[in-house]
Amino acid sequence: MMKIMLRREVPQKRTIYFLKKEEASQKRMGKLFEGNYLESRVVCEGQGDGFFVYVGLGEDSIDVNGVKNICAKAVKEAKPYTEQIWLSLAELGERTGKRYEERELVGAAAEGILLACHEPVVYQSKQKEKKALTVVLCGVEPSAENERKLDEKRALAEGICFARDAVAKPSNLLRPEMFAQEVKALFSGLPVEVEIYDAARLEEMGLEALLTVGKGSAFLPCLTVLRYLPEKDGEITALVGKGVTVDTGGYCVKGAKSMAGIKGDMAGAAAVAAAMYALAKSGGRHNTVAVLPMCENRISPDAMLPGDIISSYGGKTIEILNTDAEGRLILADAVAFAVRHESAARVLDIATLTGAAAIAFGKCMSPVLADDESFYEAFAQAAQRSGEHYVRLPFFREHEKMIESRLADVKNLGGETCGSITGGLFIRAFAEGKPWIHLDIAGTAEAGTEPIREYYTAGGTGVGATTMFELCF
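^ that's the sequence the OP posted. Answer follows.
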């Protein structure tokens, strides 16, 4: 049980102390504590009756991601020793050069703390007892505005923790229909219309690309649509997330080393669900629709084969050259569905799409493709508020020619180079000219056993959810 409170008063004695590098040097703390960024030291007092924690701020300026990291680190260090932690945001704000409004500090601190304290689901017969923890953010006004920001971050953290737990679930416990039902349950009591299209309805509507990927499994595909429409006549932004609950690669089977991660290929859909949950619970002002194609990519006598040519919901024909490039196939149908069926004015898709993205950008930033400057600028501002790191990739006509097929309208493999770009451009071909953004989170969706951020835990990260929330709020 985790609780965060706001207090105006700053107690003379508190749990966390923040020091910049030069301050640690001035105090002549030596090797004990040098004040480097995210360096920490637990100091016991007397005969062990009390303690406090130093956390280093380094010497460079600190962005929103830094605030989240620092507060997460502080609480994780203090958590084993107490059930109540006092952390002065006034002190942190002072030492970060007063760059942020108070509500921004409250929001970043709360998000970092809540996510750092997430305990991943385990399936052991004996479960560890979970301790209650209260974190007091002091030196800030418990104003309506700050409390509202705190509630917003609670909702966001709840959504992200749902996404993390979904990514961590074994595939035998998260079949496509099971995933759809878990998403539906998440929105119980919220002003969101949830509609699940089963395989029979997908057949009637002509979502052949999604059906083609899913037909290799005994567990049928489905499409989950979430509609949050607070504006009567406002335009709709569509969030489309890849929901492959298990990806063997099909007949282009993955190598043994890649098999460990095949259960997390639905991280894009999970992140979209997280963002939608936070929007609905926090009273987001803008119309947002989520389209989540869910399926398994397996091997069977009915599974797709390299060389197959299929149609799609948008009417374009597709030549399949690689059955492990299945994510773009289901997103092609989902993006076209968002535009045609849901009347979306703009579309953002997010997916664990290409190994090329993971190799090029690692686990700390995700590549982005965009074809509309206004839409991208709104996204870039949202990313700045969220603290998540993205890199925009350029593309040219030469890249678009790489996905042209001799036999069909497009092919699902662009060649041996530019994989992140051509994979995204394949999806764009189905957006029907609407402003479009693509996020490839193949490298950032999972933290691994040694997370690079303090507010990550082992397993899924929920990356993308905070930025999508900020974009659509």
